[in-house]
Design goal:
The chain is of the alpha/beta class. The strands form 2 sheets. Strands 4-7-6-5-8-9-10-11-12 form a 9-stranded mixed beta sheet, with helices on both faces. Strands 1-2-3 form a 3-stranded antiparallel beta sheet. Helix 3 packs across helix 4. It is globular.
């Protein structure tokens, strides 16, 4: 997945998680102190970097007094959406493994400043490298461009390989996470991916992902789909987060914040 760049955009997206798995995504405008709070729900030590993805074993995670502390991997962690998830997980108290393809990018180096974050290098189309990067991980996140389908053939290949690697590395939970800015969609003449049916109900089908879902279920990997749709306006900030797990139940979490004062 290519790294997203927003030319002329002075904002930095940040995400924080609360106890109990609640996610709070915030936009920080670098030109002012205004804080925007879009969506909710997801579920310090020195950073360590593995600079060679062909090493026999990833460098060890930071020591932790709590042996039960969760270790969560985030793929494509150096793009805006991936970085947001890394920040959220770090603030929630888990150990984060930020998996990137290239270490030399500015965004990757910024990850090293986040507490409890370890950076590992792996091409998401290299099965051996991805499996090694998942060593000791309990849960993994992959940010996708679309919610119910794949944005490209490459994205589908990445998702398939990462699921297979989770199976091989015995990672029990994989989350597909998607973000959409409704303001950007409107400016481009595009529609939200969250579309109610004639009765006003939201029933995602995930038709393109059915084979992947079957493979996950067969191999006892919990596959969760999450989309966060947010509206960033001057005086009112709104967002909606939808989460669907293996049981087919849809969790809806609206979040609003008035920053007019």
């Amino acid at each position: 997945m290519s790294e997203k760049k927003h030319s002329g955009d002075s904002r930095e997206r940040r995400v924080s998680s609360t106890a109990g798995g609640s996610q709070d995504i915030q936009w920080h405008n670098r030109k002012s102190s205004r804080v925007v709070a879009p969506p909710q729900n997801l579920p310090a030590r020195p950073s360590i970097v593995s600079g060679d993805r062909n090493v026999e074993e990833p460098l060890p995670l930071p020591d932790d007094d709590d042996g039960d502390k969760e270790i969560v991997a985030v793929f494509n962690a150096n793009n805006p959406d991936g970085s947001s998830v890394v920040r959220a997980l770090s603030k929630s108290g888990v150990t984060v493994v930020a998996i990137v393809r290239v270490f030399t990018s500015k965004n990757t180096k910024a990850l090293l400043q986040i507490p409890d974050v370890t950076v590992r290098i792996a091409d998401t189309l290299d099965a051996e490298a991805v499996e090694k990067a998942l060593k000791d991980v309990h849960r993994a996140f992959l940010c996708l461009g679309k919610w119910e389908s794949f944005g490209s053939r490459i994205e589908q290949e990445q998702a398939t390989l990462i699921l297979q690697s989770c199976i091989a590395a015995k990672v029990p939970h994989l989350v597909f996470s998607t973000f959409e800015d409704t303001k950007e969609l409107r400016e481009k003449g595009e529609k939200s991916q969250i579309v109610p049916d004639a009765q006003g109900r939201i029933r995602p089908k995930f038709r393109e992902m059915k084979e992947l879902k079957r493979e996950a279920r067969k191999n006892r990997v919990q596959l969760t789909h999450m989309i966060t749709s947010y509206l960033d306006q001057e005086n009112s900030k709104k967002s909606l987060c939808l989460i669907m797990g293996e049981n087919g139940k849809l969790i809806v979490q609206p979040h609003m914040m008035d920053t007019s004062n």
